[in-house]
Amino acid sequence: MNTDAGWPVERLVRKEVSGGIATITLDSPRNRNALSVRLLGDLEERLNQALADESVRVIVLTGTGPVFCAGADLKEQRIDPGNAHEAPVTASFPEIMSLIWESPKPVVCRLNGTARAGGLGLVAACDFAIAPDSASFAFTEVRLGVVPAMIAVTVLRRLDPRAAAEYLLTGETFDAARAQEIGLLTRAVPEKELDDTVAHYTGMLLRGGPEALALTKQLVRTVPTLPVEEGMRRMAELSAQRFTSAEGQEGIAAFMQKRPPAWVPRVEET
Prior knowledge:
There is one protein chain. The protein has helices at residues 37-52, 74-77, 93-102, 118-125, 149-155, 161-170, 176-181, 194-206, 210-222, 228-244, 246-256, and strands at 2-4, 7-9, 13-18, 21-26, 58-63, 67-69, 107-110, 114-116, 128-132, 136-138, 174-175, 187-189. By secondary structure, it is an alpha/beta fold. The strands form three sheets. A six-stranded mixed sheet has the order 3-4-5-7-9-12, sandwiched between helices. Helix 1 (37-52) packs parallel to helix 3 and helix 4 (118-125) packs parallel to helix 5.
């Protein structure tokens, strides 16, 4: 717990590491895990800790309470027009979404419930997003007279274009099944299956080589933007590099010897 002038300061984001998985939890349920300056500061710190920790292979982002994230803390966004300045939520939110998006370690969003507005930017930044089928979603910005500007950078890379126009322009609420259909979620599952589904994905991710996962995450995004001939050339070079890399050779040896590769956490570590 941090201290401020000698008094304890409650942390709004928790981090736990076990078996190669860092679970980062938004823990401000009294305001529905809204993106306050304090929460954003804690979240950025926790993400940087997880990224720097060599024992962490996969990151899970989740929350407490019935809401994953309600978006910006609107109480903090009200300013004196005579002293207009950068809105508080912009202070570190772009950096946080970039940390998640560019993370070489896969990031799984375990939505504990509903998400709104800025919270959906976090969801879209993650590599996987699993939510209970009871959750609901909405891009509510236009109904407040503001714009889903920052989150559009990640959201528009996930959503079907027609669906993006429909929901970003109307602010209409939609359910988890629709969120999966339009690309916002990886899976929408019954609430009782949420933890098992998240564990299914994290378990599979732990079996992948750390370097291979980081590179594959990049190519999933970049290869479709390359001309075919250039893509073939660059990917042939990358393929050759990986087959001859130490990690690639260890993976091949493990397969031939019918044993887990060295990077897979041992049973007693999980």
